[in-house]
Automatic annotation (TrEMBL):
Alphabetized Gene3D superfamilies for the sequence: Aspartate Aminotransferase, domain 1, Type I PLP-dependent aspartate aminotransferase-like (Major domain)
Cofactors, names only: pyridoxal 5'-phosphate
Record InterPro entries: Aminotrans_3, Aminotrans_3_PPA_site, PyrdxlP-dep_Trfase, PyrdxlP-dep_Trfase_major, PyrdxlP-dep_Trfase_small
Species annotation: Neptunomonas antarctica
Keywords for the protein's UniProt record, in alphabetical order: Aminotransferase, Pyridoxal phosphate, Transferase
Keyword Zinc: no
SUPFAM superfamilies according to UniProt: PLP-dependent transferases (SSF53383)
Family: Belongs to the class-III pyridoxal-phosphate-dependent aminotransferase family.
Protein name as catalogued: Adenosylmethionine-8-amino-7-oxononanoate aminotransferase
Residues spanning the signal sequence: none
Molecular function terms from GO: pyridoxal phosphate binding; transaminase activity
Length: 446
């Protein structure tokens, strides 16, 4: 067999994965890698966890699949209750789906159907941030503020009113406070220009992941956004597909800001990579209004799948018994200190940001002016590949259009210890030294 049929295979020398344990992954050639980014910030509890494997096997012995219009499964009922408890009752209803994009898609549809049911069908536009990432399906892609992904599909996605995302590193105003004021003013202006009575919801990632390399917002910004939604009668949707389920050192990132969304999208950490499961959570009032109008016109074959829900329950059990949410906060602050030490040592690190074990590093050509590397230099890909050569997996992304420079995410499983972080930092240090050498050679040639 030629083994070249996979559509998305990005390189001929892509290693083939063999097995994994804890924070380590091995390829079929016997090379070991530290999973410094939990795959795609997904495998929060680490690989090969016995509790999850046991729970999945037990569920498989009972039933793997049942369809929700014929039966409900006890694990789906229990997982929904557990999630509501984790929000401390801020949100009271749960709809299960299979991926982050589906969770965001479900949020869009619930918001639209809510306003149709309230006889306000004109409220069908969305406001979202640039840059941002909300998924690959047509609705979620329409909200996404990331030019290369949006551009080919602009004519067929729902689109959204794009407003600037707060940027606590590259802001132009004289202080962060003024920057937040300005971003909120621009957001309000955009809402009014689009027609406030036509807006269904404002959507944001409370802590950016792949889209912004761990950009965080401030409490005042969150409160300001909530106040705008309340003033103009639209909903606030938070996309915590990546930041949710303990990643930032709270069960949900919104809890850091004390601002509650009307709808919340969850995915990655919920199944922690063991089985695809995602969820949309919402306030009861929304679900009741939609329910009275004939029910939510939405669904997926795998919604509430027993195997997926058994996995989600076991993941939460592990998170609780191993106290991984508090470990994320504790180890996240150690990781942050170590990354800041590297930033003192290397001129190419312009900014370190994030919260808990969601930490981003922005690479710049000039630390003083914050000038990014030229796009063609592919700094994000170079540093990621240098790290992989040394057995460290990190998550890369380039932001285009001068929105930000290249960045990488350091987001290990929430089980990491100080010794694990030291190992990650040693390998990153070596990779940055090699990167510096490449930069020197390039500057010498130019
Ligand atoms: N929203 C955010 C914030 C994400 O990070 C992602 C995935 N990177 C998605 C939505 C889409 O999730 P999925 O890839 O599971 O469809």
């Amino acid at each position: 067999m030629s083994n070249n049929a996979l559509f998305y295979l990005t390189s001929d020398d892509m290693p083939v994965v063999s097995h994994a344990d804890g924070i380590y992954i091995w390829d079929t050639k016997g090379r070991r890698y530290i999973d410094g980014c939990s795959g795609a910030i997904t495998c929060n509890i680490g690989h090969n966890h016995p509790t999850v494997k046991r729970a999945m096997a037990e569920q498989l012995d009972k039933i793997a699949f049942s369809y929700r219009t014929q039966f409900e499964s006890q694990v789906a009922l229990d997982l929904a209750d557990r999630l509501v408890d984790l929000t401390d009752g801020d949100l009271d209803k749960v709809f299960f789906v299979g991926s982050g994009s589906e969770a965001v898609e479900s949020a869009i549809k619930l918001a639209v159907q809510y306003f149709v049911a309230k006889e306000q069908p004109e409220r069908c536009k969305f406001v979202s941030l640039r840059p941002s990432y909300h998924g690959s399906t047509m609705g979620a892609l329409g909200l996404t503020g990331y030019e290369p992904l949006e551009a080919p599909y602009r004519s067929i996605t729902i689109g959204s009113v794009k407003v600037p995302s707060p940027d606590l590193y590259r802001y132009k105003e004289t202080s962060i406070e003024e920057h937040i004021t300005s971003v909120l003013e621009q957001t309000e202006k955009a809402i009014l220009a689009a027609g406030a009575e036509t807006i269904a919801a404002v959507v944001l990632e409370p802590v950016g992941g792949a889209s912004t390399g761990g950009r965080i917002v401030t409490k005042r910004y969150m409160e300001g956004l909530r106040a705008l939604c309340d003033r103009y009668g639209c909903l606030l949707i938070m996309d915590e597909v990546l930041s949710g389920m303990g990643r930032t050192g709270a069960w949900f990132a919104y809890q850091h800001f004390g601002v509650v969304p009307d709808i919340l999208a969850l995915a990655k950490g919920l199944g922690s990579g063991y089985y695809p499961i995602a969820a949309m959570m919402a306030r009861k009032e929304l679900v009741d209004v939609v329910g009275r109008s004939g029910g939510f016109m939405h669904g997926h074959t795998y919604a509430g799948n027993p195997l997926a829900c058994a996995t989600g329950l076991a993941v939460i059990d592990v998170m609780e018994s191993e106290q991984l949410v508090s470990n994320s906060l504790k180890q996240g602050s150690y990781l942050r200190q170590q990354l800041e030490q590297l930033a003192l040592k290397y001129d190419c690190i312009g900014n370190v940001r994030g919260i808990g074990l969601l930490q981003g590093v922005e690479l710049v050509r000039d630390k003083t002016t914050k000038e990014p590397y030229p796009a063609a230099f592919n700094a994000f890909a170079k540093i990621t590949s240098l790290a992989k050569d040394r057995g460290l997996l990190i998550y890369p992304r380039r932001c285009l259009n001068g929105l930000a420079g290249d960045h990488v995410l350091i987001t290990p499983p929430l089980t990491v210890t100080v010794a694990d972080i030291d190992e990650i930092i040693t390998l990153l240090d070596e990779s940055l030294a090699a990167f510096g050498q490449i930069v020197l050679e390039r500057e010498a040639c130019s």
